[in-house]
Amino acid sequence: MSIIKGLENSDSIELMKSLSADLWSSSAMCRTTLLLLVQFLLTGLFTTAQAQSIQSSNLRDELTLSRELLERYETEVDRNAIGLLEPIEQLADRLMALNQFNEAHRLLDRAMQITRLHNGLYTSSQIPLIRKKIENFSNRRDWESAREQMNYLFWFYENQEIAVNQGLIGDLLALSEQHLRGSVEDIEEWSGYHLLRVNQLNLAIISTAAKVYGENDPRSVPLLYRQILHLHVLNQVIESRNSASMDLRRIVPTSGRLRERSEVQDSYYFVGLSLLNQIRNIYLVAEPVNPEGLAMAGLYIADWQLLFDLPELAAESYRKVYGEFLGAELRADIVNSYFSDPRVLPIQYFYPSISQADSEVQVLLADTEGFANEVGSSPLFFNEWSSAFSSVRNPEAGLRQNEKGYDFVLFSFDLVAANELSPWFIGRHTKTISSASEAEIVGYSSANQAGGEEIFEKLNQLRFRPRLNAGLPQKSRGLLKYQFASEL
Fold first, then answer.
1. Domain presence at residue 439
2. pLDDT tens per residue, range 372-385
3. Which residues pair with 382 in a beta bridge?
4. Counted domains in the chain
């Protein structure tokens, strides 16, 4: 049974429809050499450009070796021998790394021909090659060709017999990531197509994981949360007036009839809530029951309610979650310490415990220590994914928040939990909850970013988890470094 067609009766699809040596020598000479190297690095003489030059030189050397290896094999075997696949792919990888996309494309086509000759036209052995072709087209900004390959791969999953295993989960994730990339790098008229395809693939991933791992396996949690984050992306896109928003609201893909924004956003809210409850149930049925995991799931539910402008429900949920943490035998001071600072929502990862979530905070603090020293405080960070999706955090940033080389604005602002501001947003009067107020710009990387209502609109679109004490929202004053997306 095909993996995607097999999802037609799944709960997730129905729900959507209804609404990833020790180098220190003891010798004096080695110590001296090492100290000189450290001094060399610290003085900045070993620049990024020099490091890149060395890396590029190494890649060119590897390219030469790969080319020689392939030529040697070609003299020993038939041109279409299956044994040539590995050296052909290796050479294509080297060429892609050096942005020599055209030659890489020819080699990948040749590898595909050999694979089909030996294994047949429609076998899963060609999937890694199709993925490389997609990556190669994407890297050279040929998104029309990339879409063609992506559509073929989607058709393959939909119509061919494929083993349902952990490898399939990885393959579907890879295609989903490529479509996510396409949603910001492809031309605007195709953004909605990519976002909807990510949605389909994420649901296929969740269904496949349930078959491979079992219904309530903790390994499904990051996959469920990945789709929750994507629903947040879709919800933000709906607020715009671009073609992607129209695509998301169409009753059927080819129809000119559109659903109301509120109707679509309600469906996103309830699907996300259902997925969060699935996560909560995983910790509920665990043996033994995981009370802290249950409380963390409740915390993310409260955050989700804030993201959808439901402050009363969120406040009630935060109070309930505080009691659940105490019931899980966590000390009140540990719980309050974790909630002592606001957070930009949504949180990038699902953490099943406060200790794991707090370890992320420590990583962020270490990463941003230099900047914090410059501004005299520990700011929040937000990495814009795309100028088209300004309220969506860059999914590739991970825990690296203080990226160098990007334009930014440093905001100072007040945060009042469950506050009700009413800014005008793209011509419509929109109530925003848990938003920054009394904001002012206190620093910037470029004078071009220093003013204008558009800059403050970007801040107003963000949502924050408030500072909490004993589960009760507290007023706070903070800094936010808003880093702008780089333009391709």
1. yes
2. 555 555 678 899 98
3. 482
4. 1
